[in-house]
């Protein structure tokens, strides 16, 4: 399956960008920016089907208003080069209903961002052109328990081996800036991307769909064994940018797009950047800095006019790159069956397979089967099922840990608030719930009531200590890190096994045979 669009950027004032404008664009609202005293209006924008703001527990309730929220962000970010917000744009599975897409976004934002303390403002766009997608804006600063913005970083003194401050030649103490939260750590780009893949596939599976999302890069999808791109293609020399673009166009054409726009959309989903400058289409493959024009310089058969002629049925497309992977000589069982099928080139199963795959990919599958001793179909099927089960078990463990960690974070806040306001609430009760006392201490009393209600909802009779909650959180975090390392290994193993099994099934027609057997059994039952 192609790699759907998933993009993360930072809204930066140094680039003359505005968080208020970004929020107005994705929501279609008319917002007023207090920073530059200008209206940011996108009220005429079409295709905005849902907008929503999710707040963490300690955020002021007035931040549920989009104009208030992003003006507050821009007010606290008062530097000329301030980073204002983190911005996501991601493709949504069009196989899901609108309600499922909304639940998907809400759950993803809550688990990955809001539970960590960020405010998430998200919107779903769908013009009915088969390209539903979502926008997310995230706050970058943490907040304290009263909902006040905290610094993004703090100064920390550098100490020597004896734990003493180090004085510099100018008489000042040596120091460094330390981030107060790790949200900008590069690891989160991979984690958020991975979790987006996991939750989409969980929703697709829950709705009975067979499609699965793969957010690995184009190169990694075609390289399941971690070998270099050059070796996978069977060449010694590094492929040029144009060679990689030709491979991508070949694979896009294999999926039989309806028209030229459909082909460009497939290229975009593969990770290729597509733009137009004047009359020329400009392409940039993943990992390359410069663009290449889609003209005769891309190679014979790959210009825009030639590709349009192919899609119109006016000429035949011949992939320029020849297969360079030799088919190994099969020795036993499954490999013998595969080789016989390839040589025969007959049957509905082969016809379907040939439209999507090529001999080079099947050769890779046969190499994989040989290297791992999967020479019988039953063994391959059993290994794939076991890998899938283990992967799902680890996913469930990690999700359970994250759920509990989110609960602990909320409990910790309520516990601290409860203890801090206990004396005030006792005095309020002693005063006979005086309205005057309430007016003077309303904030503390409301915090105390909210904490008490949270404990009641969770059935907590004995107040937990902050120390015990922190210890449990640390234990869960450590376990999650270990599980996640194994989870990533199990995910790759499962993908490799399922990819090999899918190739074999499509070529040999095993899936069709089993479907026919089920239909016969159902007919006999009736």
What does this structure look like?
This protein has 526 residues and is α+β, with helices and mostly antiparallel strands. Helices cover 50% and strands 12% of the residues. It is built from 17 helices and 12 strands. A 5-stranded antiparallel β-sheet has the order 1-5-7-6-4, with helices on both faces. Strands 10-11-12 form a 3-stranded antiparallel β-sheet. A two-stranded antiparallel ribbon has the order 2-3. β6 and β7 (133-138) form a beta hairpin. The longest helix is centred in the last third of the chain and has 54 residues, at 377-430. The chain starts with 5 loop residues before the first strand and ends with a helix. Residues 217-238, 322-332 and 517-526 have low confidence and may be disordered.
Helix-strand pattern:
EHEEEHEHEEEEHHHHHEEEHHHHHHHHH
Number of helices: 17
Q: Could you tell me how far the N terminus lies from the C terminus, measured between alpha carbons in angstroms?
A: 37 Å
Q: What kind of assembly state do the chains in view correspond to?
A: single chain
The main sheet orders its strands as: 1-5-7-6-4
Q: What percent of the residues sit in helical stretches (DSSP H or I)?
A: 40-55%
Q: What structural class is derived from the secondary structure elements?
A: alpha+beta
Give the total of beta strands.
Answer: 12
Unreliable stretches: 217-238, 322-332, 517-526
Proportion of strand residues:
5-15%
Shape: globular
| Rg from alpha-carbon coordinates | 29 Å
Largest β-sheet summary: 5 strands, antiparallel
Mean pLDDT over the full residue set: 80
